[in-house]
Amino acid sequence: MQTDLTVDQISTCLSDKNIDFIVCGSIASIESPKLIRALRRLGAEVRPFQTEGGAMFVTKMALEWAAAKPVVDSFTGLSTHLATSDAIVIAPITADFMAKIALGICNDPASALVQSAIGQGKKIIAFPAMHDSLWNSAATQKNLETSQKWMTFLEPRREEGKRKIPDPDEAADRISHEICKNTSEVLVTMGPTKAYLDDVRYLSNYSSGALGSAIVTELYRHGFSVYCICGPSNIKPKVFHTLTHVETHIEMLEAIQTITKTRTPHLIMAAAVLDYVPKERISGKMRSGTSGKNIELIPTSKILSQIAPNGKKRIAFKLEPEGSDLEMKSKEYLNKYSLDYLFTNRISAVSSTEHHGTLFSQNESWNLNSKSEVALKFTKILGET
Fold it and tell me: Are residues 113 and 158 in the same domain?
């Protein structure tokens, strides 16, 4: 039953993880309840810890509501200060708390929890939040160097001369990536491509970037290193290992080849690449107000045909016209381009919110009904390799 404490789970990336979440004394701690809820939406169970300084900025009741669990802020006979979770998250971490970690001080449950986690080699993740002058202090930098031996510091948002916690959803995705980190690499193409008629006009396929972004985000949450090559789309992923912006199909191919020269990633070709481009690009701007002009189009070479199999999974997309035999066309495409999977659909099944289609392999098929379903299915497939 839905209650005020319930959250909607949007991913399975942290569904089997328990996280102890420490809130320190910084104005950035007002974002902590939102971040706790964001982690729960990824499936995590979160137990909040609060320092004396943290209580100056966010109430115990707010953290208890966010986590749907009691807040630990004092020692008890239940030894709640001993680390038993999968990971410790400190958001925000202050200069003072970093000093405690570096010096081994554990005079409250939160600092004792960290030392217990260090003693067990558990994963500890922190987002710094403080004024630049505190961060640049020689003592803070020395404590940072010491603390980095045992824990991971994630890059904060930088503005107004301060280090701040990123948007809670983005921060939760980055935390999940660290907790789930694995050695698998994936190259994802997404968005449309352009072909210029002149210096101001161009042809393009429609692609909002929503599906590609969902795929990149879900893979990243699950710990994959994601190399994203993105055409000029309105929606772009906020989390990734690298993000390369391209405009044309030639630039997209070159970006893929640059990455695959030195790496052997799984390949997900989700971009809407133009099949036809103008034979020549006119320099400057075609004059307006004149009679119609014939534009000669020539076919583009398929990017898939120029990327040799590397022993990893190859997944592509195909949009078929109404009335065509999806299964027959998909099997032809699978064989032609040495694909492991092909997601096929019709234009009538796609909108800004919906994405109905069928994922084919040589021997199986799956009906998928949303962008998130597609992203989760791909993550599961690659996680099984």
Answer: yes
In the block, residue with structure tokens 């300084």: 53
**Tally of structural domains, the chain:** 2
Residue 134: C-alpha distances to residues 87, 96, 237, 336 (Å) = 27, 10, 32, 59
Q: Is the pTM of this model over 0.85?
A: yes
Q: Is the pLDDT of residue 116 over 70?
A: yes
Alpha-carbon distance of 15 to 32, in angstroms, equals 20
Structural domain harbouring 255? 185-286+293-383
Point out the domain boundary residue: 141, 165, 180. 180
Return the ∠ at Cα 182 (arms to 180 and 187), rounded to 5°.
110
Give a yes or no: residue 11 inside a domain.
Answer: no
What pLDDT digit, counting tens, does each position of 327-343 carry?
Answer: 888 889 999 999 999 99
Across the range 295-311, mean pLDDT stands at: 91
- Asked which of 165-169, 224-228, 330-334, 346-350 is least confident by mean pLDDT, the reply is 346-350
Q: Does residue 364 carry a pLDDT above 90?
A: yes
Handedness of CA 104, 106, 107, 108 (dihedral sign): positive
CA distance 152 to 28: 19
Let me know whether 320 and 194 are in one domain. Answer: yes
Q: What is the number of alpha carbons within 13 Å of residue 337 lying toward its C-beta? A: 26
Nearest to 25 by CA among 61, 63, 52, 48: 52
Question: Which residue matches tokens 């690009």?
Answer: 281
Q: By three-state DSSP, how is residue 227 classified?
A: strand
Q: Is residue 48 part of a domain?
A: yes
